[in-house]
Write a structure and sequence with these properties.
Blueprint lengths: L8 E5 L3 H13 L3 E5 L8 E2 L2 E4 L10 E5 L4 H10 L7 E2 L4 E2 L4 E2 L4 E2 L4 E2 L4 E2 L4 E2 L4 E2 L4 E2 L4 E2 L4 E2 L4 E2 L4 E2 L4 E2 L4 E2 L3 E3 L4 E2 L7 E4 L4 E5 L1
């Protein structure tokens, strides 16, 4: 795919740690105006000179797009579904995107991330800094592929999956919905039941 043009005005929902990465990539991608909304903001908070408000202003003029900056998969889905404007897709200029890649709305592709050819990335996905989703893999909606984690070729990753930092999923492996894979774990066989998986090779330590 060609790089998705950045919106001119972007409403960022949330102002936690992930929102800083979202703001950084948004500005690098060409967004001209940011507005952050977070009910837990402190007085006079800002990012790169752009304001953070506790409530959404109802008088916004112009062509606005929305983006959920929440790391929690379930809460991010709620925000995406109820967003007051169309969902933007944010792709860092220094991410690498292969040919015939599909990337859904509300998805964040961070700095130095790589998406291989023919991969399909769903709605509201986070592909965090340095992560890899290789050729022909599918990542389901509202999944988080964390920093420096790797999904090898022809994998199938379900919805609401959390792949921890530095985790690896080897080629042709499937992970069902609602799975947490711990940091540094190696998934070498299909995961067919929801739960939390840790270790090398990854083993279930809790039920769904």
């Amino acid at each position: 795919m060609s790089q998705t043009p950045a919106p001119h005005n972007l409403l960022v929902l949330g102002f936690g740690g992930h929102a800083r990465s979202v703001g950084d990539v948004a500005l690098a991608a060409g967004v001209k105006r940011l507005l952050f909304v977070d009910p837990q903001t402190r007085p006079n908070e800002s990012f790169a000179g752009f304001p953070v408000h506790a409530k959404l202003r109802r008088d916004l003029a112009g062509d606005w797009w929305a983006f959920s900056a929440l790391g929690d998969n379930g809460l991010r889905e709620q925000q995406c579904v109820s967003a007051p404007f169309p969902l933007a897709t944010l792709i860092s200029p220094d991410a690498t995107i292969g040919i015939e890649v599909e990337i859904g709305p509300g998805t964040f592709v961070a700095r130095k991330a790589h998406v291989g050819p023919l991969a399909k990335i769903g709605t509201g996905v986070i592909l965090n800094t340095g992560s890899i989703v290789d050729h022909e893999s599918i990542v389901g909606d509202y999944t988080h592929i964390s920093v420096n984690s790797t999904v090898a070729g022809r994998c199938r990753i379900g919805r609401h999956v959390m792949l921890g930092a530095g985790a690896v999923v080897i080629d042709n492996v499937s992970i069902c919905d609602d799975v947490i894979v711990g940091a540094g774990a190696a998934v070498v066989t299909d995961i067919t039941e929801s739960g939390t998986y840790v270790g090398i090779p990854a083993r279930c330590v809790t039920g769904g």
